[in-house]
């Protein structure tokens, strides 16, 4: 597109002008979708909610451990049961994968709201569990929302990429046709020469992954003698 802008004789031709505008429009849409695919509006919200639930979980752990030596025997006993419950979730860490942490916290919270509710209430930790549940549900909701949005964006990106490819190929066909039909006016030669060199360079240096050859010292057939 940038090169075409310098080819005044070429883009003066109505067929080239139309093909160029079609390609420019498709290329702009493709870039829009690429930018969207690289950024999610939910990411920052997820980070905050994840940090909130981590803080609440560690605050709960600290409160339980602090109550292990409570002077009230009933509270100390409740703390012991909750501490043993925490041991069952020793794999629950803020460094773990986001969805894995969400799943473990769902199970943990269900236990605290059911099997260990008496002990949780005895230590006055129900507000901690309620807040932890809100934060964990928010992370779960936002991650699902981000996944849905990403699927839509990638669908749009695939469609935009196809449209951009088709517009580029059509532009190439129009230019190649004008070489035969109207090259005296369109003057396509310089543009074609430039694009052939550019495409060749991209194929050889940009779009082709480098393959590492096997050690030349190792013959393909071990039975064959090495070349002296």
Describe this structure in words.
- The structure is a single chain.
- This protein is mainly α and 228 residues long.
- Helix content is 76%, strand content 0%.
- It has helices at 2-6, 8-11, 14-37, 42-66, 73-88, 98-113, 117-122, 126-181, 183-186, 189-206.
- Helix 4 packs across helix 5 and helix 6 (98-113) packs antiparallel against helix 8.
- Mean pLDDT is 85; it is low at 212-216 and 221-228.
Summarize the structure in short:
The chain has 228 residues and is mainly alpha-helical.
Layout of SSEs?
Layout: H1 2-6, H2 8-11, H3 14-37, H4 42-66, H5 73-88, H6 98-113, H7 117-122, H8 126-181, H9 183-186, H10 189-206
User: Helical residue percent?
Assistant: over 70%
User: What is the assembly state of the chains in this entry?
Assistant: single chain
Structure summary, number of beta strands: 0
What's the order of the H and E elements? HHHHHHHHHH
Biggest pleated sheet:
none
C-alpha Rg (nearest Å): 32 Å
N-to-C span = 54 Å
pLDDT under 50 segments (min length 5)? Answer: 212-216, 221-228
Rounded mean pLDDT score: 85
Q: What is the overall shape?
A: rod-shaped
Briefly note the structural class of the backbone.
Answer: mainly alpha
Question: How many individual helices?
Answer: 10
- Beta percentage is under 5%
